[in-house]
């Protein structure tokens, strides 16, 4: 029995019941695939169901405000995915008459859609012969065939795509692609894979050579950057506060947050520094909300965060009641703080 047939047989018996597996609608497959990038299925499922409820068609998503899209995405991270999702929905509605491209060649041109996502949509929705290669597939192929090329190197990416194409199941590409990803997630997992019951164990190179724990190989990650975030929570005479929208490129683009000081701040220099950020606010008193920094870990940076409460006897122009803060799309770091108020 071939490698691909074993994967298919395993999938038939072990596949999870997931909401996007009940359809081949390209809009919903696209939605699920974008959400599951860098996200565990357990976390992504509730977000998928929420988006499906609020935006049942691509027209609904295209016609929504970016603020609503970001609010529903809140907590899922990697917010560029949400912005690209919204941009692409509008592009398909406005320029393609709401019709999803039905080939890999056209799908990969969409903003936010790379090789993997285009291959997944093309194969699952349109039955096109395209092999998917995601983190799960890299792991299965690297272990089974004993490949020690780094999966995040140029050479490795090309090699694994070629290998995946050579071994894919051409007569049932739709289930095979979902099957090999499921196999990597459940059977050939990153830690403690279940090799004892694996249908591939008799011919797995990694198992034979005791390389299961070392494959796949990945080049060292980028050095983690440390950043000091100090949020200024202004409270005015009537109990309102203020938010600002992050502009420009970078993390949390277009999300809202309290005025930010990115610096090393203490009770000695806080007055001098907040005056630069809030020149029009006359602060009467301030307190440090959290003595110990809240460490928020992102993929390439760790944010050491403090919240400062600044009181003013004035009334803020465009002040926001604390009860209204929940309406704004904010980073999860801010959302967690708001919950404590």
Brief write-up:
This protein is of the alpha+beta class.
Could you characterize the architecture of this molecule?
This protein is of the alpha+beta class. The chain is built from 14 helices and 9 strands. The chain has helices spanning 3-14, 26-35, 41-54, 58-63, 66-73, 80-95, 104-107, 115-126, 135-145, 154-167, 173-186, 205-208, 270-277, 332-340, and strands at 225-235, 240-241, 244-245, 256-257, 260-261, 285-288, 294-297, 301-311, 320-321. The strands form 3 sheets. Strands 1, 5, 6, 7 and 8 form a 5-stranded mixed beta sheet that branches. A two-stranded antiparallel ribbon has the order 2-9. Strands 3-4 form a two-stranded antiparallel sheet. Helices cover 42% and strands 12% of the residues. It has 2 domains: 3-131 and 151-185, Endonuclease III, domain 1 (Orthogonal Bundle), CATH 1.10.340; 225-340, Nucleoside Triphosphate Pyrophosphohydrolase (Alpha-Beta Complex). Pfam families: HHH (PF00633), HhH-GPD (PF00730), NUDIX_4 (PF14815). Adenine glycosylase active on G-A mispairs. MutY also corrects error-prone DNA synthesis past GO lesions which are due to the oxidatively damaged form of guanine: 7,8-dihydro-8-oxoguanine (8-oxo-dGTP).
Structural class category: alpha+beta
Q: Classify the oligomer.
A: single chain
Mean pLDDT: 94
Q: What's the CATH topology name of the largest domain?
A: Endonuclease III, domain 1
Low-confidence stretches: none
Number of H- or I-type helical stretches:
14
Order of helices and strands: HHHHHHHHHHHHEEEEEHEEEEH
Total DSSP E strands: 9
Terminal residue distance: 61 Å
What gross morphology would you assign?
A: elongated
- The helical percent reads 40-55%
Q: What CATH architecture of the largest domain do you see?
A: Orthogonal Bundle
What portion of the residues fall into strands of 2 or more residues? 5-15%
